[in-house]
Design brief:
Number of helices of chain A: 7
Helix content of chain A: 25-40%
InterPro entries (chains A, B): AB_hydrolase_fold
Structural class of chain A: alpha/beta
Protein name (chains A, B): Alpha/beta hydrolase
Largest interface: A-B, 23 and 23 residues
Strand content of chain A: 15-25%
Order of helices and strands of chain A: EEEEHEHHEHEHEHEH
CATH architecture of chain A: 3-Layer(aba) Sandwich
Number of domains of chain A: 1
Oligomer: homodimer
Organism (chains A, B): Streptomyces spinosisporus
CATH topology of chain A: Rossmann fold
Shape of chain A: globular
Distance between the termini of chain A: 42 Å
Keywords (chains A, B): Hydrolase
GO molecular function (chains A, B): hydrolase activity
CATH class of chain A: Alpha Beta
CATH superfamily of chain A: Alpha/Beta hydrolase fold, catalytic domain
Largest sheet of chain A: 9 strands, mixed
Chain lengths: 254, 254
């Protein structure tokens, strides 16, 4: 098993931030500056076209660390952030841009390309989790959650279906086409976000993916607005969801 | 205008509880024992077959007072609690029991009877709000919210559509048949609860009522489970919704 290499560390506003690499995968681990000896871990995925330090990632990490006392790990997805793109990545990105410029639906390209990325990303996440669990402040038997929307749902659904260490997950903003089968194997608590006026994902598609989860405890949060208008308070809701299911430390920010 | 008559008062665990009557309508006003001179008011409705002191009412009132610093008022709906039933009430209750015993859908009776009750209840609520706003700790220009599920949604939707003093509302667990038209006139922020496995209200019906609200800000919370299995954490979510929109005092209970 490969070990994490920490390459940089800073602390600010109660959050300790460490860059790491696992082989050629770069990531960031955010942790409480002070707190109990061990705390639950949230694996967090970024959306398509963004990366591990995208504002949505740093903002959610801060909420999870200060609001729940969690450790939060993000890695760059294949072909994203500091990682090289393959010829296949370039082809699919070009296909997406062509669809956008032609005013055609993005869904078919996103569904297909994200499914491809998930095949590459799931083993990377499992190796990253193996390595993170070697850290004494996380540990091999501590609670683990997964939090990822958009492309990070396309990766997180098959990851959660195949890794029993993940016991609670927040997903959202994706189609059921490539994911419903894996979702039907997920029985852990799920919170699922969708946008009622999503210009890319039809309502029926979002509802069908929510419906597919086999979880006895699952919640759907629908908000009025377009694809990119998910309200910020859903990030606070995700913190509370993980506190309920993984047992973090409640500290609601004002 | 009639004035509220307070008939009893107790205080416990940070909550001041006052029984009142407005003419022949009995109600309860829950308030913070200490706090700012004025605070927003939540009008809260009870479900069919229950009353102003049903455990769901006292539990939500405690959360709203201690979690948001709100005043919370509940009145007995017509034919409920300490109020007499008319011959028409008795007929409709008998029709509901017959449908239940025969294993027939309750929806048609509930929709029809609740629409009738709403016609009686809306003017009562408006008179109650007039009288509550005479109290110095509430005031005529303070923020007002409405919180009611089941029958209290059947009453609250036409009430909110017709009374501009209500600027945020939590509804849920009802059919669109008699309510969609009023919902289309509501533009204030709405949070709407439904149950994914509701044995009485089809999914399409709940989604259609949510869809009908004209509000730019609206959130739908769907949870797995049957009609009566709405999770308790939705009451905490309602507190946060009212804090966001009416400006209460944040105090998340652990």
């Amino acid at each position: 098993m490969q070990a994490l290499q920490f390459t940089a560390e800073t602390s600010a506003a109660g959050v300790r931030e460490r860059d790491f690499t696992l082989g050629d995968i770069p990531g960031v681990l955010w942790s409480p500056v002070s707190g109990p000896e061990r705390a639950p871990l949230i694996l967090m995925g970024h959306g398509g076209g963004t990366h591990k330090r995208w504002p949505a990632m740093t903002g959610r990490a801060e909420r999870l660390v200060n609001g729940g006392g969690f450790h939060v790990a993000v890695i760059d997805a294949p072909g994203h952030g500091d990682r090289p793109r393959t010829a296949h990545d370039e082809q699919e990105i070009a296909a997406l841009l062509r669809a956008r410029e032609a005013g055609e639906p993005e869904g078919p390209v996103v569904v297909r390309y994200n499914a491809h990325l998930a095949e590459r990303a799931v083993p990377e996440w499992r190796a990253t989790l193996d390595a993170l669990q070697e850290l004494p402040e996380i540990g091999a038997d501590g609670p683990v959650g997964y939090y990822g929307l958009n492309m990070a749902t396309a990766i997180g659904v098959p990851l959660t279906a195949s890794d029993a260490r993940i016991t609670a997950a927040v997903f959202g903003l994706h189609w059921p086409d490539a994911l419903a089968e894996a979702a039907r194997r997920i029985t852990v608590p799920v919170e699922f976000d969708m946008q009622w006026d999503d210009e890319h994902i039809p309502r029926e598609a979002g509802l069908a993916l929510f419906d597919a989860f086999a979880s006895r405890e699952k919640s759907l949060h629908v908000n009025a607005g377009r694809h990119k208008e998910l309200p910020r308070f859903e990030a606070d809701s995700a913190v509370r969801f993980f506190v309920r299911h993984l047992g973090g430390t409640v500290a609601e920010p004002a």
